Amino acid sequence: MNPEQKRLITILGIAAGAALAVGLYFLLPGKKKSLLQHYKEAFSYSKDELQTMITNFHAEMKAGLAGPSTIKMIPSYTGKPTGKEAGIFLSVSYTHLTLPTKRIV
To answer: What is the pTM of this model?
Structure first.
């Protein structure tokens, strides 16, 4: 199976799960509250849990810049803008689906 097929299967799986959840919501009126409560609880975090996630994410980003890590990082060798920049600048951002580019004059 090629990567495009895997991506399509993933998208279809997510769509099927969402459709099932919506269908259950409307077909089972007595279960609405418990279904919504289930998803609310699944995506709710305390401030301490969120702070732990943020701390761990920052640590992984720093580790990724230093070498092997679970987050792949590419260092940027550009300085901070000063406001005195001149000329034409190109911006490229790569994601798994698109490659947006910008030309700034």
So the answer is: 0.39
Average pLDDT taken over every residue of the chain: 75
CA distance 6 to 21: 23
Which parts of the chain are beta strand (E)?
89-92, 101-104
Burial 60-99 (b: 16+ CB within 10 A, else e): eeeebeeeeeeeeeeeeeeeeeeeeeeeeeeeeeeeeeee
Helix (H, G, I), strand (E, B) or coil at 69: coil
Sign of CA dihedral 15, 21, 24, 26: negative
Cα separation of 99 and 90, whole Å? 13
Look at 33 and 16; give whichever has higher pLDDT.
16
Residue 81: phi and psi, rounded to 5, are: -65, 145
Q: How far apart are CA 87 and CA 2, in angstroms?
A: 42
